Amino acid sequence: LLYSNGFAVPKLLYVNHAERLVFMEYVEGENLEKVIRRIVDSKTVGEMKKDLGIICKVGEKLAEVHALGIALGDTKPENIVIGKNGEIYLFDFEQASRNGDKVWDVAEFLYYAGHYISPFVSVQSAELITKAFIEGYLKAGGKAEIVKEAGNPKYTKVFSVFTLPHIMFVISNVC
Length: 175
Fold this sequence. Notes:
With 175 residues, this protein is of the alpha+beta class. It has helices spanning 32-41, 45-67, 102-114, 124-139, 144-150, 153-159, 165-174; strands at 12-16, 21-24, 29-31, 70-71, 80-83, 88-90, 97-98.
C-alpha cells in the first residue's frame, strides 16, 4: 500500500508464507540512528543544520503515512534509512495497521531518538531533534493533538527504561 502510494520502501522480492520468509530489496543508505548520533555529537547548531533538516523530512514522511490512515507501529530510527538520493526509506512493517495508534508512532520515534543522547551532553540536541521532527510532521498535515498526546505519561513511561529521565522530560515538554 505504501509503495503504491509513492513511498520509498524496499521492494518485496519473495514471500513464503509457509516458512514465514520475506526477502526484500537491499537499500543502500545511511541509517537514521547515525544521523541522530551526528546531531548529538555536533558542537554548534550550524553543524546540525543539514541533519536537523533530515529529521524534519522524516516528520513530514510520517505525517504523510498517517494521512493514509496507516500507523507503522515500529518507528524507531533504525527502521528509517536515508538513501543515496536523500529519499527517506521506511522499513519494518510487521506492526503496521490501518487506523492504528498514530500517537505511538510519534512517541516511539521521539523517545527512541532520545535514547542516543548521552547523559554527559546538553539536552539541547533532544530539544532540537524534537522540534525539527514536529515541525515537519505539522507542516505535512500531521495533527497537533497527536503530537501533544505523545507527551503524556501513557507513552513516556514505556520508554523510561532506556531513555534518560531528563531527556524524556525535554521531549515530553516540547510535545
